[in-house]
Please model this.
Amino acid sequence: MPTILLTPLISAVIIALLLRRQGNLAAGVSVAAAGIICVLSLKLIFGKEGLNTSYKWLELGALQINLGFLWDANTATMLFVVAFVGFWIHVFSLGYMHNDEGKARYFGGLSIFMFSMLGIVFADNLFMIFIFWELVGFSSYMLIAHYHKTDEASRACRKAFIVNRVGDLGFVLGILLTFWSLGTANISELQAIATQHPDKITNTIGLLLMCGFIGKSAQFPLHVWLPDAMAGPTPVSALIHAATMVAAGIYFLIRIQFLITTDVLTLIVWLGAAMALYAGICALTQRDIKKILAYSTLSQLGYMSAAFGLGYTGIALFHLTTHAFFKALMFLGSGSVIYGCHHEQDIFKMGGLYKRMPVTAFTFGIGVLAISGVPFLSGFFSKDAILIAANLKSTPIFLVLMAAAVLTAFYMGRLYWITFLGKSNSEHAEHAKETPVVMWLPLVVLATLSIIGGYQNFPYIKELFHAFHGSLEKLHHEEGHDAAHNLLLVLGTVAWVVGLGGSYIFYKAGSSMDNLERQQPKLFGILRKALFFDPLYNFYVAKIQNKVADIIDVIDKLIIQGVLVRGSAGILYVTGLFTRMLHGGNLQYYSFWVAIGVLILGAFALGWIG
Amino acid sequence: MTIGINEFLTVSGLLFSIGMFGVLFRRNTIIMLMSLELMLNAVNLALVGFSRHNQDLDGSLFVFFIITVAAAEVAVGLAILVGLYRKRESVMADHLNLLND
Amino acid sequence: MLNLLFYIFATMTLVPAFLMVTSRSPVSGAMYMIASFVGMACLFVLLEAFFLAILQVLVYAGAIMVLFLFIIMLLDMDEAEDLRTKSLPSMAAMIAFGLLLVTVLSFFKGSYDGPLSPIQATTTTTVVTEAIDLKAKPPALPFSTKARTFGYGLFTKYMLPFQVTGILLLIAMVGVIVLSKRHEAQGGKQEG
Model:
């Protein structure tokens, strides 16, 4: 396991130190590192030879920070997602970033990200998770800012960083509180304490730790950064902002599930369900293909947190895994489309791409069907499990999630019909070509996974199911499961048929105008308003935070700059004036200093001074 | 007045002062180097005087080492001077002001 | 008698030293310097350090000053120096000189009054019969007029410094050769 963790770090270091100008070499190193990670991880997962070790890193009084590895079924599944999907996204990047100037920087960033993400996957204590948590934040910042010359990207990366800071403040407080009240930060030890003394686990700890999850997984109310983060290169969106990093929040919750109290769980359910619906509404009015996918990611993350909050952690991880497959597939597919259309991202300027990009269109279609919950694809199994669980536990949650499911199918259908079917709506789309093999091969691989990812008896896939079994079994034995299951078979089918069919009828294949905007401008405006969070935050920043900042600025100018900085600079200046006298540049000047030294020494020895 | 160690030390002090004065006063680096030798000699005299006074040979042995080191120092110092003279055509200290800002 | 000799020798040391410092040409400075060194050797004799007196004449007056003269003549830099006694550095030098005199002289004043005690008879100058044990505590070395005591001290108590000095001389020799070697490119530039 240490080898897996260190490989991307070594790759990143090599790229940062030696290969900054050799983009192709850097790409090779990074992809090779991802390949090594992938092979080693698969060996580890299917060989089941995980180990739990711990290295002492630093010790501050009672606080001992270890770098350790905790291996269980959850780790195996998450490792598979990160290593396998990560590898194929690396491969895809080879094609997508082929002509990019900052290729070396990009691949270095990917390697750092892999390192940090694997760190979170393996970490056996909260401090280590926090360190790698911040590292993924950094690499995400760096990769969003890849096109740093554009205003959008530089703004987006700052936004992502700052919004994450808000969540991380709560997170670090939560870790400190955990350590302070429970005396350890090691996850296994925490679990032991939590089972022995359940009374020690307070709502505060759960709430604070949840803040970290909310920031990283872009949940209410810190979700604003994720759509903007789409300013980064598309493979990055696929890797970081769909498959792995945002899912790290869920993974983290699963790791520390015993620290989350029932009250907090309820909160998480409601946040998740609300997010699933709200993000679906937002996605309806978007024109940018990546933004639609970003809102869809938010919505699916909402599903996951709902599943977690309902107490079925395994199902949350199940949906995380299948979502990683089909959402990475769709992001890469959108990357392929964007690449084929010369960086056109507006779906209303595409259209008719199925003829020109058959592989992309076909695989993307699989992704759309999977996310909509069409039977026999991976999304069907995980999503249905969540809906059944919701149906059994709470009707309002179930209704919200059902509505979100219909919406999902609707906006995904809208995206697909407009982009791939009908006739082309612009020059670029007309001349689009199928992408090279390095780009469509990952699509095929991920499409395969999206199809088979839900079958728990499939060879190899069944190894991943160790993490899900517990929850799935529990769900099966719930009272009324069979009735709910049958109900869901009907309702689920209704949801995707209504969603996909409705969007086809409403939007028409390959349309060049938003039908909703044309027919119901008022409704469209209202839905647009659903994005009110950004103005709200802007208002807060402009009216409140800036005022506070102004006051702090005055204090800063007066005390810090005036007294401390200028003052110390002044002292240094005077000292400099004096010491410059010592440096006359003339040999005899120096001998005068020797003479003065002799005189002082003599006077001192004689007792005249001192 | 009998001659004791004190008188020798006085001569040594005078010699040291003259040497120091030479280093400060002169701009010719060769003379400065000689003045340095003078200062070393003054120290030698004091050391031998103390050695004689304390009936201990260590001081005298120290003088032996000082003479050896002084010989080495002069050799290197003069070699540097020759190098300087080749480069700058002068041995005057006020011309050697490359370090001046 | 001893008093008279002391005053003669002290004058022989101090006056040429002062003349050296104030002489305008380096060659005459070097000559004064030799005289001063000889005077110093005589003072050593008065202190009954005969070996050092000879060493002083041989090494200082003989070797070092010849080296100085050699360099002066080799480079032909016997230019008379304008002493500029009125300039600021010179004034400062004089002031420093005065202060130094006061300090140094008051430093020694009255500390060691009284005549020199006669040299005590010593035993270490007897022929060494046993092998010298370098690890044992170094023997005390009483003052002696004999060169043999010097040798004894150097090879017992001061064995390590003695050898280090040898290496130092070697380094100085190599250093001088390196320093005074004409570098081809540099020399060519200057002459071209």
Observations:
- Residues 43 and 98 of chain C are 25 Å apart (CA to CA).
- Residues 187-192 of chain C have pLDDT under 50 and may be disordered.
- DSSP finds seven helices and no strands in chain C.
